[in-house]
Design goal:
With 216 residues, this protein is of the alpha/beta class. The chain contains 8 helices and 6 strands.
C-alpha cells in the first residue's frame, strides 16, 4: 500500500509568493499535497506540515507559532532565504521544528518536508544543498527585483523604517540602504514615497486571504 502524501499549508502575506511555492511543489503531488494557501491567517485545514514562507514576515523569535497553528497538531517549518544561525535558533525556540533554506532544489524541499513529517528536526546546516537558483515567485520579479530587493520594498510598503527593516530582515543597515538604492534604480523612482506608491500599484501591499489548495 502506498503511503499518503504529506498534507501541507503554505503561509505568507503575499498571494504571489504562496502561489509560486505551490506551483513548485505541484509536480510532487504524490508526495506532498497542498491543501491550504493562507495569507497571514491561522491555519484551519487538517494538515501535517505548515510551511511558513518568511518573505516580508516576522522571523525568528517574532514568529507566533501558537497563533499561526491555531492549536492544531501540524509541524511548523520556516522557509527562508535568511539562515543566520541566531535567527534559526530563535525560530526553533519559537516553536518551529524545521528550517529550510530557499536555495534548495524542489525535490530536496519535498524530501525535507517528508523528514519533518516523520518527526525529524530539520536544520539548514544539516545537509541542505543550495543550488543558487531563485525559488518560486515574489512581487516585482517581472521588473527585475531580486528576492531581497523585493522583500525590502515589501517592508517599506508595510511602513517600516530602515532600522525596523534591519531588525525584521536581519540585515545590516548599510546592506538595507544598498538594496534600497538598487531597487529604486530598477523601478525608476527617486524617493521613498514614490517607491511606496509604485509598490502599492505592483502587488506589494500584503494580502489577507485564505483559499483552498488544489487538493483541498
Amino acid at each position: 500500500m502506498s503511503k499518503s502524501p504529506v498534507r501541507i499549508a503554505i503561509v505568507n502575506d503575499y498571494e504571489i509568493v504562496v502561489a509560486g511555492t505551490a506551483a513548485v511543489l505541484a509536480p510532487f503531488e504524490d508526495r506532498v499535497r497542498v491543501v491550504e494557501l493562507d495569507s497571514s491567517l491561522p491555519v484551519k485545514a487538517d494538515v501535517d506540515v505548515v510551511l511558513y514562507d518568511s518573505f516580508g514576515q516576522a522571523q525568528g523569535s517574532d514568529v507566533d507559532a501558537a497563533a499561526l497553528m491555531a492549536g492544531g497538531d501540524a509541524r511548523l517549518v520556516i522557509f527562508s532565504w535568511n539562515i543566520d544561525p541566531d535567527l534559526v535558533d530563535a525560530a526553533f525556540d519559537a516553536g518551529a521544528v524545521g528550517y529550510i533554506a530557499k536555495g534548495v532544489a524542489a525535490h530536496e524541499l519535498v524530501a525535507l518536508i517528508e523528514a519533518v513529517h516523520r518527526g525529524e528536526r530539520v536544520h539548514p546546516s544539516a545537509g541542505q544543498h543550495l543550488d543558487g537558483e531563485e525559488f518560486g515567485r515574489w512581487p516585482g520579479q517581472d521588473h527585475g527585483l531580486s528576492p531581497r530587493e523585493a522583500e525590502v520594498l515589501a517592508l517599506i510598503c508595510q511602513g517600516l523604517s530602515n532600522q525596523e527593516i534591519t531588525e525584521r530582515a536581519f540585515l545590516g543597515l548599510n546592506t538595507v540602504k544598498t538594496y534600497i538604492r538598487t531597487l529604486y534604480r530598477k523601478i525608476g523612482v527617486d524617493s521613498r514615497t514614490r517607491a511606496l506608491l509604485w509598490g502599492i500599484d505592483h502587488g506589494f501591499r500584503p494580502d489577507r486571504s485564505r483559499r483552498p489548495g488544489p487538493h483541498a
